[in-house]
């Protein structure tokens, strides 16, 4: 039930005909008594019309619903794109008896193509009419583009429930303030607006930032977090046990969605977890982790089942982070492949086969220590396969 | 004859047996009366032993020869790698009656594997004995790794000749101070050391920096420029017509080598020239150009023959450069695909087929203007094909 696992939410998804495939392409999620909403948005300079609209409305407060379409991204569409986002959310809000500002918007699909407004507007009454507390699954399906399956998660702590769903298999990069995707997370805990923003920033943002598929960041990235307050339970504020409960449930849902996104990344056969420690700061650790996870040579080596310490060395060395080369160690799984900045003889003589086995795992763990500093981080990447090229070369405008 | 087109140079290449393929793998280039040498070196933190040795010796002055091996990169090899670089250049220098410091070293091949010193030392006398003013071609062949053909160029201006050769088909990125490759350029013009360094920095560095294949930068990148002074002609100093002549000849040789490198890039079917103008500075322009040229989504779109303005928009927007989105224009060939930050209706209605034809050219030109600033630059990239994945997934350690 994903987003409707948390009490106080209704959702639905329908086929409006905006996608050529004829699959479901329009979803609606509503908090019956929305208490608060928080959002994380792309930092791409060409933020899409729905991103600009939602960012503004989340900042004003009072948002408690979101209309999501797949098929067109409504990005690179100028003023008429803004008008389309405005009109479609106004129509949805009116059907639900909400203020227009209570309705947010997300779009995903082809950049530059105007929203198919006729189909969207014609489908809205049916969509609103089918809203239900069991609608999470059909909502999760309606937001998909090239995803092979919906991504859904739920968690429960004490009296509180958290649910979520996400889409996004390409264009996922950690460089920006969040990974490129759409994700919707709901909770029935009573969380005031400021505290909900803090939860989004503290728990969800670092998590979604840590995912990279191809270093590209979309114009439409959005993570929305809604609180309905429908659960019995104390107010959720920092320093209390309700805060710990909700944080833990959000963390669990975020982690699950993240792993599902990576596992379904375009053409990916392996998830590559890069763990960096010992950097001078978190941002320096991030530079190193991202350099390794985004290195085409590392990604193709993982695809080829080849433990290639030289490519890890090369990626770390070109990351731009500052460290002493002679302090750098690296591991593939449990096998040390770089020791003090060198590829050790012990590895070449006895470690290659064990490292090769580690690279053939579905989840490949590459650990890098660059010194004795406090900065550490994780980045989740994927391999680069023929299928990645195929999917992206044939995905036409 | 490439590097031996310039008078006063001898070169040779032999098969020492350091490469499993049994192809030529050891080359030697010597200026009979070396007047001066200049070098550009990788900024990778794990600079290989030969890079550290050559950087030091070029800075001291007096270098006039270089020993180049393919097969092992002698990177990630620690102190014993330094000893190997020292011993091999000392042996080569002794055979030629040169001071050890006059001999530079370059290595290319597998990272982390020690130099095959036995084969190298055994092959040196034969290599030195086969040096000749006609040896440029065999030298150019000995430095190849996965290159499908040698890259050679020559130019002549007035009394001066310039020759050059290069290798390097993967791991080429412009982010660092030079593109990842080995290149050797020679001139018979009489150029003092300081002026030769200036020519390398002014003419060769920006050129080699503009090439990107996969955003990865090797531990071994080196461009060496030698002047023999063997030509009749005035001393080459700035503000004179000899300076103009030698600059122009260097530019011609550099451009030719660059295009040959891009054309032979791993798995590349298209060269993608990204021209950015109107940025606030050259470095801002560079951020934009590199974001477009390195975007996996743009690269796969070019491979697929798909003019995809949305992916260009996305790449420009995520570049981190500062600009006003509403001032951004972009062209594929002559077709405007972004106007004022939007994908214009005129393009969608009438421009797609013409843009598709432009993307199917062997050389694809993507022009981006991000405002009215003075910063402009060019970056040369390539598409991303099945063959790129194949070559890099199967290239084993």
Characterise the protein shown here.
2 copies of one chain form a homodimer. The first copy, chain A, has 397 residues and is an alpha+beta fold. Chain A has 2 domains: 2-263, L-amino peptidase D-ALA esterase/amidase, CATH 3.60.70; 271-394, ArgJ beta chain, C-terminal domain (Ubiquitin-like (UB roll), Roll). Chain A is built from 11 helices and 14 strands. In chain A, β4 (65-72), α2 (78-96) and β5 form a beta-alpha-beta unit. In chain A, α2 (78-96) packs parallel to α3 (117-129), α5 (193-209) runs parallel beside α6 (241-263) and α7 packs across α9 (309-317). The longest helix of chain A has 23 residues, at 241-263.
How confident overall, as mean pLDDT of chain A? 90
What is the domain tally of chain A? 2
The number of helical runs of chain A is 11
How far apart are the termini of chain A? 33 Å
Overall geometric form of chain A: globular
Major sheet details of chain A: 5 strands, mixed
SSE run of chain A: EEEHEHEHHEEEHEHEHHHEEHEEH
Largest Cβ-defined interface: A-B, 68 and 69 residues
Layout of helices and strands, plus pairs?
The structure is a homodimer of 397-residue chains.
Chain A: E1 9-14, E2 26-31, E3 36-41, H1 49-60, E4 65-72, H2 78-96, E5 103-110, H3 117-129, H4 136-142, E6 151-157, E7 160-167, E8 182-187, H5 193-209, E9 222-227, H6 241-263, E10 271-279, H7 282-294, H8 296-303, H9 309-317, E11 329-332, E12 335-338, H10 345-359, E13 363-369, E14 375-382, H11 386-394
Parallel strand pairs in A: 4-5, 8-9, 10-13
Antiparallel strand pairs in A: 1-2, 2-4, 3-9, 6-7, 7-8, 10-14, 11-12, 11-13
């Amino acid at each position: 039930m994903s987003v409707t696992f948390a009490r106080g939410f209704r959702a639905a998804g329908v086929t409006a005909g905006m996608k050529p495939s004829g699959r479901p392409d329009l979803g609606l999620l509503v908090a019956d008594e929305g208490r608060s909403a928080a959002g994380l948005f792309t930092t791409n300079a060409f933020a899409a019309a729905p991103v600009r609209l939602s960012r503004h409305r989340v900042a004003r407060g009072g948002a408690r619903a979101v209309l999501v379409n797949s098929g067109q991204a409504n990005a690179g569409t100028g003023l008429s794109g803004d008008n389309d986002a405005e009109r479609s959310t106004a129509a949805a809000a009116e059907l639900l008896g909400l203020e227009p500002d209570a309705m947010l918007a997300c779009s995903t699909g082809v950049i530059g193509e105007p929203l198919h407004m006729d189909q969207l507007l014609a489908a809205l009454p049916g969509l609103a009419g089918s809203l239900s507390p069991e609608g999470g699954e059909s909502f999760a399906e309606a937001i998909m583009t090239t995803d092979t399956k919906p991504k859904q998660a739920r968690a429960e702590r004490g009296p509180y429930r958290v649910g979520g769903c996400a889409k996004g298999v390409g264009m996922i990069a950690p460089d920006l303030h969040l990974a490129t995707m759409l994700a919707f997370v709901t909770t029935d805990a009573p969380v005031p607006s400021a505290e909900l923003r803090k939860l989004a920033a503290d728990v969800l943002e670092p998590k979604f930032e840590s995912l990279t598929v191809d270093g590209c960041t979309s114009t439409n990235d959005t993570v929305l977090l809604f609180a309905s307050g429908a659960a019995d339970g104390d107010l959720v504020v920092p320093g209390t046990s309700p805060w710990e409960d909700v944080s833990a449930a959000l963390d669990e849902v975020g982690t699950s969605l993240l792993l599902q996104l990576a596992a379904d990344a375009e053409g990916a056969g392996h998830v590559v977890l890069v763990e960096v420690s010992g950097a001078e700061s978190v941002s320096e650790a991030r530079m190193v982790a991202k350099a390794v996870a985004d290195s085409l040579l590392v990604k193709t080596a993982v695809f080829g089942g080849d433990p290639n310490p030289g490519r890890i060395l090369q990626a770390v060395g070109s990351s731009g982070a500052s460290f002493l080369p002679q302090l750098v160690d690296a591991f593939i799984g449990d096998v040390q492949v770089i020791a003090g900045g060198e590829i050790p003889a012990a590895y070449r003589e006895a470690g290659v086969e064990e490292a090769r086995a580690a690279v053939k795992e579905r989840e490949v763990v590459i650990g890098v220590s660059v010194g004795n500093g406090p900065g550490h981080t994780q980045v989740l990447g994927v391999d680069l396969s023929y299928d990645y090229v195929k999917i992206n070369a044939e995905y036409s405008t």
